[in-house]
Amino acid sequence: MSPFAPSLLPASVIERRLEAWLTRLRESGCAAFAVELWNGHRVALDQAARVTIRLRTPRALAALWSPDLARIGEAYVEGVIDVIGHPLDAIEAAARLSDAAGGTGTRQSRPRRHTRAQDSSDIQYHYDVSNDFYRAWLDPEMVYSCAYFRRDSDRLATAQIQKLDHILTKLRVRPGERLLDIGCGWGALIVRAARDYGARCTGITLSQNQYDLARERIREAGVEDRCEVRLMDYRDLSGRFDKITSVGMFEHVGLKQLPAYFRTLHALLDEGGIAMNHGITSADPDSGETPLGGGRFIDRYVFPNGELPHLSLVIREMSAAGLEVQDVESLRRHYALTLRHWIERFEAAGPRLREMVGDKRHRIWRAYLAGCAFGFSQGWMGLHQIVATRRNDPVAEHDYPLTREHIYGAR
């Protein structure tokens, strides 16, 4: 039972017990933060605390009595508590509070259904907020995936263009080749591949908003003759392609669907072709959820039914599908940097975003971006680019370079 029992105790008793509880947390080395009660009384672990958790009602104490990131996040999103301070400071305080209180560690993911209808619904929930919402805090190309930083000081727009070129260079994209981008977002990669590399590109998405804007951008770039976007599920694809990219999409595929997903890539990849899977991976060898309840928060509010496989599972399923892994690169630190840029842009646009999507959704995304930045910086998740060819492919055996000089040699 909670020592606060707010419905039964007078405010003065609650305040004394809360202060005693926070004192124990201070002694345990928990991150410095302050708690402000609904009556204005403030209790601080440290007078220099950068974060204040404001409890709007007595029932908000439940989020602190048995805290993890899911419970604290839910209380924030539902307006039971307010969090005053920079979101990165706030998420660090929440994580340390959860850890000090014995919050849940990594857990196995529950089985998820990934039918065409369910996946379409989940994608639309996440991506069809509004194009203006994403435009307000992404880079000008609206690349919603990990950027590629050559140095810490790179601007976000520069790093995202570098990421697109890094992918297209890794795949050795040449004029006239057929490129498929599974989960093409708002079309940045296919437009660049068509316009600057001369490829014939097809992108697919399940998001109506992404589809509409990608078509518009293709027209504006003047590449309609060699670039198209389709509103469709990857499971309905047919044909053959010289190069295949999947960037920030396979997190939606599902652990049990990975074998079929990679068999699809194998079937679509032509002789001599190269495929790349760029996606978030679990740091847990058993592909469990992220620690301290973070995964539960994301599943409920942000990415319904998303699942993160460990790198070892990804490589195993790629190999079982007949794909030979040629190159693996970790971009975890790059994603932590990317998210820091997104957070600063999101904070700068805060009042406009809140007006655009409402307070609750604004809170969801504020918590989500900060949580992801913290998670990548702590190594809770990874980001891997995995390049593969068809196994026993004589053309790929002859053409694929022996070294990485084709990626880095010209830089």
Topology:
Layout: H1 11-27, E1 34-36, E2 42-44, E3 52-55, H2 61-65, H3 69-77, E4 81-84, H4 87-100, H5 116-127, H6 131-135, H7 156-170, E5 178-182, H8 188-197, E6 200-205, H9 208-221, E7 227-231, E8 241-247, H10 258-268, E9 269-282, H11 294-301, H12 311-320, E10 323-330, H13 332-348, H14 350-357, H15 359-378, E11 381-390, H16 394-399, H17 405-408
Can you describe this structure?
- This is Class I SAM-dependent methyltransferase.
- Pfam families: CMAS (PF02353), DUF7884 (PF25371).
- The active site is at residue 372.
- Belongs to the CFA/CMAS family.
- With 411 residues, the protein is of the alpha/beta class.
- It has 2 domains: 11-100, Nonspecific Lipid-transfer Protein, Chain A (2-Layer Sandwich), CATH 3.30.1050; 116-408, Rossmann fold, CATH 3.40.50.150.
- It is 45% helix and 17% strand.
- It has helices at 11-27, 61-65, 69-77, 87-100, 116-127, 131-135, 156-170, 188-197, 208-221, 258-268, 294-301, 311-320, 332-348, 350-357, 359-378, 394-399, 405-408, and strands at residues 34-36, 42-44, 52-55, 81-84, 178-182, 200-205, 227-231, 241-247, 269-282, 323-330, 381-390.
- Strands 7-6-5-8-9-11-10 form a 7-stranded mixed beta sheet, with helices on both faces. A 4-stranded mixed beta sheet has the order 2-1-3-4.
- α4 (87-100) crosses α15 (359-378), α10 packs across α12 (311-320) and α13 runs antiparallel to α15 (359-378).
- The relative contact order is 0.12.
Kindly summarize this structure in a few lines.
The chain has 411 residues and is α/β, with parallel strands linked by helices.
